[in-house]
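S., here's the first fold you wanted:
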Amino acid sequence: MDFRFTDEQLMIQDVARRIAQEKIAPSAEHHDRTGEFPRENIRLLGENGLMGIEVPAEYGGAGMDPVSYVLAMIEIAAGDAAHSTIVSVNNSLFCNGILKYGTEEQKQKYVRAIAEGREIGAFALTEPQSGSDATAMRCRAVRQDDGSYIVNGKKSWITSGPVAKYIVLFAMSEPDRGARGVTAFLIDTDLPGFSRGKTEPKLGIRASATCEIEFADFRVAPEDVLGKDGEGFKIAMGVLDAGRIGIASQAVGIARAAYEATLAYVKERKAFGAPIGTFQMTQAKIADMKCKLDAATLLTLRAGWAKAEADRTGGRFGNEAAIAKLFASEAAMWITHQAVQLHGGMGYSKEMPLERYFRDAKITEIYEGTSEIQRLVIARNETGLR
C-alpha cells in the first residue's frame, strides 16, 4: 500500500473539505433540528462530482478511485453525518451495482442523473421482518409471459426513500431457491404501484430521510431487471461490501470532528486554575481517542486500496471492508462518548455539536451490517467455516 495521495485524490479531498466547511457544517444544526432534506447542498455536491466519485465521466461522475471516495467521505461526514449518508447511498449502494451489472442503457438512464446530483437514488433490501437475514424477504416479484415482473411487498428503513427518484430493489422471484431466488430491479418511483410510508423519526442522521416503501402490482419492464434473474443476492452482498467502506469513512469523519472539537476544548477549558488538558486523566482519554482515530483511518484507507486492487484484478475486498467498518464504527461510538464526557455539561447541550456527533455515531454500528454481522463475516473469512 502506498498512501502518498495523488494530486487528483488531494484535489477531490480539498473540494469536499471546502464544501463541508463552507456549506454543510454551518447548516448541520438546522437540518438536524428540522429533519429537512438538504437538497441544495446535495445538488452542490453533485455539481462538484461528489455524488458519483467512482462513476466514469461518460456517466456523469468524477471517474475517481475508491481511496478518493474515502478521503471525500471523511470530509463530508466531519461536516455532517446525515449529508455523508446520502452521499454514501448514492455512491456505494446505488451506482456501484449498476456500473458492475447494468446494461449501457441502464447506466445512462439511472446512473447519470444520480451522479450529477440532479436526482436521488436509494437501495431497498431490508424489510420489516428481514434485516440481517436478507434471504427471509417476503417482497415478491412474479415473472410474466412478456419477461416483465409484477412486484408486491414492503421494504423498510430505506435511506433517501422519501425523496428518491430511482431505487435498486431486491425481491424474491423464486422463493423455493432461497438466496438464489432473489432478483434485482431498477425502479422509477414515478410509476404506478409505488408508494411511500411516513418518514422515520430517528435518533441521529435526521436530515437523511428514511421511510418504508410499498409495491402494489408494480410492473417492472424486462429492460429494468439488473443483472440476471436470480443474481440479486450476489449483487446485494457485493454492493454492501463497497457500502461498508462508505460507512467506515463516515464513522472516521464523525470521530475526527468529535476529536478535534475536544482537543480544542481541553486546551481552553480551565478547572482548578489550569486547562483541563493538563490533567492526566484527560490526557489518557486524548491519547486513546487519537490512537483509535488513526487506526480507524488507516484501516478504512486500506479497505479503499483493497477495493481499487479488486476492481483492477477481479479480486475480493470484503474482509478488509468488514474490518474497517467494524473498527471505525465502534471507534466513532467510543470517541464521541469520551468527547461528550470531556465537555461535561456542554457536551450534553444542543448548543454544541458534540451531542449530535454522539447520536450520529450510533447508526454506523447498525446499518449496512451490524457489528455482530461484521464479526461473523470476518470470522468466516478467516476460518473458512460456515
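And the second, which I think is the more interesting of the pair:
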Amino acid sequence: MDIPSTTLSNGISMPLLGLGVYAPRQNNEVQQAVEWALEAGCRLIDTAAAYGNEREVADAIRSSGIPRSDIFITTKVWNDDQGYNRTLRAFNRSLERLGIDAVDLYLIHWPIKEHRHDTWKALEKIYRDGRARAIGISNHYPAHIDELLTEAQILPAVNQIELSPYSFLPEVIDYCRQKNIQPEGYAPLVRGEKQNDPKLVALAEKYGKSTYQLLIRWSMQHGVVTIPKSVHRERIYENFDVLDFTISDEDMRHMNTFYDNTRIADDPRTLP
C-alpha cells in the first residue's frame, strides 16, 4: 500500500494517514495495535508523553523489523512539563522511552498560556540541535497561534487539532494553510459517536464503504494528515483501506455542513 504524503514547510515528507495511539487503560494493547498498523502499511505513529505508551510504541517498531528511517514518529510535551527547562527534560525522557536519537515531529500538546513562549523556545532548540526533524503544535486555534508567532523564530510545521465533519471549522484549516502550517486531524471517527448518523450512513452506502472509512477519506481529501485510533486488527486494516475511492466534490460539500460541534476533547476556543 502506497500511502500519499505531504511535504512540510521545512521540506520533510509526512504520511497523510497514520495511527493515533491515545488509548487510556489499553497500554497492553498498544504494542499489538502498532504492529498491526505497520503490517497494514502504516508508516506514521502518533503518540505523546501523556498517553504513557511511548515504550510500547518503541517495542512494536523494533519487533516489526521495519527500518526506523521508514517510520514517522510523533510525540508531544504534556501540559505539566511545559516551560523551557522542563520541556527539554520531558523531551529527553520521551527519547529514552522511544529508544531513539531523534523524533520526526515534536508537538506542544495544548496551549498553556503562561508557558507558551518558553515551551516553544525549547522546541526551537530541540529542532536546531537536530533532535526533531520538525516541530509543531496541537490544539492551537488562530488566536493561540497569532500570540505564539509574536515571539517564535521558527514557524510551527504542523498543527494537530480535533477534526471531523462534526467539528469542522474551515476558517481554522484556511488559517493554517495561509501560514504554511500543515493541518493534522485527530479523532476523525468521533469515537464512534456518529457511526449511525443517517446522513453519514446514506453516503457510506453510496460508496460501498463504512461510515468510518468515509470520515477518514473526507479528512484526507481536505489535505489534512489523519490519524484514526484503534486497537482492533480488523478496524485498523479497514481504516487504512481508504485509498481506492474518492468522495465527489458535491458530497464533500455536503459533509462539510454536518458541523454540530461534537467533540471528544476540549474546544480550544474555550482556552485563554
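Why I say that: The mean pLDDT is 96. The beta strands are 5-7, 13-15, 19-20, 44-46, 72-77, 105-108, 135-138, 158-162, 182-186, 225-227.

Talk tomorrow,
H.
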